[in-house]
Amino acid sequence: MRMKYITVIGLEVHAELSTKTKIYCSCKNSFGSEVNSNCCPNCTGMPGSLPTLNEKVVEYAIRMGYATNCTINPVCKADRKNYFYPDLPKAYQISQFDIPLCEHGYIDAVVDEEGNTKRVGITRIHIEEDAGKLIHSESFSGSLVDLNRCGVPLIEIVSEPDLRSAHEAKAYLDSIRAILQYLDISDCKMQEGSIRCDVNVSVMPEGATEFGTRCEMKNVNGFSAVERAIEYEARRQIEVLEAGGTISQETRRWDDLAGKNYLLRSKEDAQDYRYFPEPDLGAIVVPEELLEELRATIPELPGHKLLRYMKETGLPFFDANLLCENPDKADYFERCLALGRCQPKAVSNWLLGDVSRILNEKNKTLADTKLTPEKLCDMIALIEKKTISNTAGKTVLEEIIWSDKTPDDVVKEKGLAQISDTGALEAVVRSVIDANEKVVNDYRGGKTNALGFLVGQCMRQSKGQGNPAVIRELLEKALG
Ligand SMILES: [Zn+2]
Predict the structure, then answer these.
(1) Ligand 1 centroid vs 68 CA: distance in angstroms?
(2) Domains (ranges, CATH) in the chain?
(3) Helix or strand or coil: residue 128?
(4) How far does residue 26's CA lie from ligand 1's centre (Å)?
(5) 41-80: per-residue pLDDT in tens?
């Protein structure tokens, strides 16, 4: 009988911070500049140039620490991690070794649509510098190097091996990304490599008390690639064990296109890097007042907000999750609710439906529009009071979103008010019945779905302004 295995996963997330300048020099921190244009003697590793710490990097990292329930070490230091690679001209990276800026935290990642959460321990968050980028091309032999990324500030967020499935890993990464976005400390652009992930995987037989030997996959790009990489690696390890083999500690390269990984090297240990305190930088000391100030900047975080929306407004996970995706959208939603003019589900439907569609078509955000929460809610209230139809609501939205007009202005201007007056609608119903003898006979002969067609005809004749419920009632009365 095959044994059952448990997969154990730990993640190291590298997130580029969106500070204006690099971590140890005043070069611009921006993606997509001309190659080797954001460089100076310091970030290209020229002998004799000295690093100066960008304090913003420390502040951003501390905010991430508070947002993930970490203890902040007010006194810490930078350390040299020595290794050679052509994208690292200094042959060392300034990182943090034994005293990270933040440690012993956790986040509660939402793992399913019922709003259940999984607590994932955060071992540490430290600051470090990024390396450059090698450029390979088929048009020349050898490789080129772009050093613009050297010295771009990173935080490395190391999780405890608390994750047990690819799905949980994805949920954890989604939470990390959402927190970074809410704190506005990273642009989180996966396609530009702003978030990269090292994945540690081991397996152990069910009931075992000790973890198996783990393998690491470096720089897996994209969260769904992380899921695929975990599933592949767990399967590979189980197959090795089932065949009587043992797992050796290795670094493997994930090839997402091929859906496989390959052995890169047997895993290095910390001692291979010969860490030592960075002699060109002093201790990092964060004053108590600054810590307090930074702690006070932490907003309500997306996971908490999501669960609160589900609980307080009864919104399903799908809606609540989309609303919380971006702090501006969530803020807008809450301003609408605070007005108390319409149902939360109606606000959510409009925001996630037609409003998002219009914004996407024009590649704009809510801030670019003239759609105040007041105007949106007034429009929805007109539908809820049956003054206008849902279809007319869409027409109103298209106008009020870009202009100073109120929903009432547009309803008047375009004559969109719904006709619920039975006197006016009776004439419409009469003429539709007269013009559709065959359908009317079908209906009387028992084809009840013929009624829908007749309602549609009446709506058309009233130019969409007839109240469909009233029309249906009148039709039923006339034909009954
Ligand atoms: Zn520089």
Answers:
(1) 31
(2) 5-294 (no CATH), 302-414 (no CATH), 422-479 (1.10.10.410)
(3) strand
(4) 6
(5) 999 999 989 999 999 999 999 999 999 999 999 999 999 9
